[in-house]
Amino acid sequence: MGGCHPISIITDQDLAMKAAIAKVFPNTRHRLCIWHIKKKFTEKLSHVYFEKSNLQRDMRRCIHWTWTEEDFEEQWRRLMIKYNLEENEWLQHLYEIRSEWVPVYNRQIFFAGMSTTGRSEGTNSFFDQYVNSTTTLIQFVESYERAMKKIVLNENNEDFESEHKERVVERHLLVLKHAAKVFTRNIFVKLKHEWDEAWKFKIDEETLENE
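The structure assignment produced for this chain is given below.
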């Protein structure tokens, strides 16, 4: 990596990995995968999660819709009281390490918009189609070559789609027309989605009384 530490790393709650990152990359922000943590909620809090309660909704709001650390901590405290979870040891531990997984504590650090290990999990899942614990070294090399050929074929197909299939854009939307020319098909679809979402907001001009 050119002798430089990465700015940020996302992993699951593996203690050995946590210790290794702290030792090898002491200046790197280590964040825990929020997907892996939330996945455990149904297991650790099943007695509340599957009752007719709003815990799942309230927890989502607390984790994702608090904008300051103080706000999160206050919302978390209220949740614990509301659902009688003050003595839950698993939640107590999560709260103690809240700076390692709650979004509001990591907004000042560059994570490229990611909060999960989804990309690496996807890579692992892809290669699981070609290798397993019994694969020999020779078989691995052969399987790896097949996997690379499939990736290249998929990328070539995507390139063909991007270059030869024109995206339909209304004539007056000049920004989108330009984006359709310079971005790949997948990136353009994501951009257009964000563009469409932005137009759902309404801006009203207000005049301050003391002006």
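Interim note for the steering committee: The two ends are 55 Å apart (CA to CA). The mean pLDDT is 82.
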